Amino acid sequence: MAKEEFLFRVCSSSRTRPRNDAGFTLLEVLMALTLTGMVMLAALSLLRNTYGLWQRNFSDDASTRAARLLTINVRRIVDRAYYYPYLDGKIEHLRGTDDGFDLPVVTERNGIQREGLYFAEGQIVIRQYDTAQPNEVREELLLEKVAAAKFTYLQADRGVWVDYWDDRDYPRLIRLEISLRAEDTAGGEKRVPPLVVSIPVGMECRFQ
């Protein structure tokens, strides 16, 4: 009896003991592949969302930097505007088009010169004109990767914006609207908040 009980226990143990060398079953392999695929899809979705957020933040930062750079330099130009009457009738007043403007400014080194801001070939540049040598123009790159830019000028008496200025008064305000080329693969444009500056004379300055 004891011998039969011993043989029964041995057989039962051999049936219930895990088989380490049997490997994974097909069901276990399919479950593992399914779980791995779900994890990979979640990781890819997270990476895509993170990249999209980074791209939007980069674009917003680029617009902010562009607006700040333009504001500083336009203010630097108009704050040095020459307000006084012509000394000899040879100083031209502000000239403005939808591509840019220039006006007489007062400098410490060279006296009265002309300086302005222009959009040309996808760039915003600062142009400096030497009054002693009118044909000599110096350009300084201010902003690149510009998709579009438009300058307009506010007529104080009519209260309307015009894209050409040739009056003997300064405009009340100068406005610059600009779009940057988007950096993402989809292309497109990113609008920069409009820049509006005033020539700090309180009112038009009429040259006599």
TrEMBL record:
<dbReference type="InterPro" id="IPR012902">
    <property type="entry name" value="N_methyl_site"/>
</dbReference>
<keyword id="KW-0812">Transmembrane</keyword>
<keyword id="KW-1133">Transmembrane helix</keyword>
<dbReference type="InterPro" id="IPR045584">
    <property type="entry name" value="Pilin-like"/>
</dbReference>
<protein>
    <submittedName>
        <fullName>Prepilin-type N-terminal cleavage/methylation domain-containing protein</fullName>
    </submittedName>
</protein>
<feature type="transmembrane region" description="Helical">
    <location>
        <begin position="22"/>
        <end position="47"/>
    </location>
</feature>
<keyword id="KW-0472">Membrane</keyword>
<dbReference type="Pfam" id="PF07963">
    <property type="entry name" value="N_methyl"/>
</dbReference>
